[in-house]
């Protein structure tokens, strides 16, 4: 069996004659099917570090790519509340693919966040009817993507050191700075064009199948009319525009939780079938599942993840309500309160998730450190992406809110 056969086999006509789910519960069940297929050879695919074409095809065939798409165009018309749980579920099977899906949802929603009504309608019809996957060349710490005007067009040129989705995306969100100004412009363009050149240089410790390497943008031409949220070359600001950061930070937290849950599920299955009880403790057990320190250890880790899940579900419902409400209704204060709660959820799952991904080795035993077991994938994935932005600043945001009743000002990371 080749490294991608498990995923490819899982795709064979699996959903061809199956009706699309009609409820949130049905979509979560569909996501679990996808996760189960991905989990079967996640370690082998991670080791191979190949471009995840088959995995993305699975996301499309299952219908998950158009979960947030309008029903009028064949999408599920589901809420962000459901989308966050779907991201988490897929990440249990493969953290990389959970990230790809989560980023896709955010960039598919980017038009609603910043674009005009006509632009929103056009983008949503385009991606939903075609089952397109979004990627994003949007790394705010890189300021070397410059936009120059050429009549009624904008020309994007430069480089981004990260572009999640890369070669498996159908559409790419570009972000750059208009030459001679401090104005940021977002635009959605087809990925398959000569002016977008991926370096294929993503070779990090974890999240290896996210296609997150660098990209060179070579004179990509975009009509001014496609600059998201601009009318007559002037941006039309709303507080709602700034929800992109809290929304994607909660995407992060949910696939972190999924990775941690996957670690605990994988470890507990190993303990039930393979871990041996310790015979030198004076209170010898016949089965590892009766070992007191294993019962205590799994109980402690599970309790932490259940608490994290409850917090992320609560704040997921909060931001979902705001994301689906009229854009003009959102106030800066409400936006800030939600951002603080998301920061709290993220910092908790990073700490707890890394503890889970490390401590499972103590609960499975020395033999579980074998590469064939593959427990390392969970720690590597979580450790890699949780470095996206410093957790210390999330703690400061929460502390400032608690002590001073101040909400964070919108930035590229808050």
UniProtKB/TrEMBL annotation:
<feature type="domain" description="Acyl-CoA dehydrogenase C-terminal">
    <location>
        <begin position="250"/>
        <end position="388"/>
    </location>
</feature>
<dbReference type="InterPro" id="IPR046373">
    <property type="entry name" value="Acyl-CoA_Oxase/DH_mid-dom_sf"/>
</dbReference>
<dbReference type="InterPro" id="IPR009100">
    <property type="entry name" value="AcylCoA_DH/oxidase_NM_dom_sf"/>
</dbReference>
<dbReference type="InterPro" id="IPR013107">
    <property type="entry name" value="Acyl-CoA_DH_C"/>
</dbReference>
<dbReference type="Pfam" id="PF08028">
    <property type="entry name" value="Acyl-CoA_dh_2"/>
</dbReference>
<dbReference type="InterPro" id="IPR036250">
    <property type="entry name" value="AcylCo_DH-like_C"/>
</dbReference>
<keyword id="KW-0560">Oxidoreductase</keyword>
<dbReference type="InterPro" id="IPR013786">
    <property type="entry name" value="AcylCoA_DH/ox_N"/>
</dbReference>
<feature type="domain" description="Acyl-CoA dehydrogenase/oxidase N-terminal">
    <location>
        <begin position="36"/>
        <end position="119"/>
    </location>
</feature>
<protein>
    <submittedName>
        <fullName>Alkylation response protein AidB-like acyl-CoA dehydrogenase</fullName>
    </submittedName>
</protein>
<dbReference type="Pfam" id="PF02771">
    <property type="entry name" value="Acyl-CoA_dh_N"/>
</dbReference>
<dbReference type="InterPro" id="IPR037069">
    <property type="entry name" value="AcylCoA_DH/ox_N_sf"/>
</dbReference>
């Amino acid at each position: 069996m080749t490294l991608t056969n498990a995923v490819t086999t899982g795709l064979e006509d699996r959903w061809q004659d199956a009706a699309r789910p009609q409820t949130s519960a049905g979509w979560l069940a569909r996501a679990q099917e996808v996760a189960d297929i991905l989990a079967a050879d996640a370690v082998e695919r991670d080791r191979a570090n190949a471009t995840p074409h088959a995995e993305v095809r699975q996301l499309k065939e299952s219908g998950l790519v158009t979960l947030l798409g309008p029903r009028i165009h064949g999408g599920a018309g589901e809420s962000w509340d459901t989308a966050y749980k779907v991201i988490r579920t897929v990440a249990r099977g493969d953290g990389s693919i959970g990230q790809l899906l989560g980023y896709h949802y955010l960039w598919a929603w980017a038009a609603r966040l910043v674009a005009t009504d006509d632009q929103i309608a056009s983008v949503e019809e385009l991606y939903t009817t075609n089952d397109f996957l979004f990627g994003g060349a949007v790394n705010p710490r890189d300021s070397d993507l410059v936009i120059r005007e050429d009549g009624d067009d904008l020309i994007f040129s430069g480089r981004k050191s990260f572009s999640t989705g890369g070669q498996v995306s159908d559409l790419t969100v570009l972000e750059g700075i208009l030459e001679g100004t401090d104005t940021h412009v977002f635009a959605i363009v087809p990925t398959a064009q000569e002016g977008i050149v991926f370096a294929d240089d993503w070779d990090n410790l974890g999240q290896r199948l996210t296609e997150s390497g660098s990209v060179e943008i070579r004179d990509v031409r975009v009509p001014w009319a496609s600059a998201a949220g601009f009318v007559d070359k002037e941006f039309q600001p709303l507080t709602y525009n700034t929800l992109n950061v809290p929304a994607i930070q909660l995407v992060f937290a949910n696939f972190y939780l999924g990775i941690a849950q996957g670690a605990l599920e994988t470890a507990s299955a190993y303990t039930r079938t393979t871990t041996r009880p310790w015979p030198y403790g004076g209170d010898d057990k016949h089965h590892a599942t009766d070992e007191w320190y294993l019962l205590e250890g799994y109980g402690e880790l599970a309790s932490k993840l259940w608490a994290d899940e409850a917090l992320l579900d609560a704040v997921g419902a909060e931001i979902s309500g705001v994301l689906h409400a009229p854009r003009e209704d959102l106030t800066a204060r409400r936006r800030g309160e939600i951002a603080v709660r998301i920061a709290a959820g993220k910092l908790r799952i990073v700490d707890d998730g890394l503890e889970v991904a490390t401590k499972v080795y103590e609960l499975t035993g020395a033999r579980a450190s074998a590469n064939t077991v593959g427990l390392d994938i969970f720690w590597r994935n979580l450790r890699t992406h949780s470095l996206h932005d410093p957790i210390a600043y999330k703690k400061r945001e929460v502390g400032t809110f608690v002590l001073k009743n101040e909400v964070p000002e919108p930035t590229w990371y808050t």
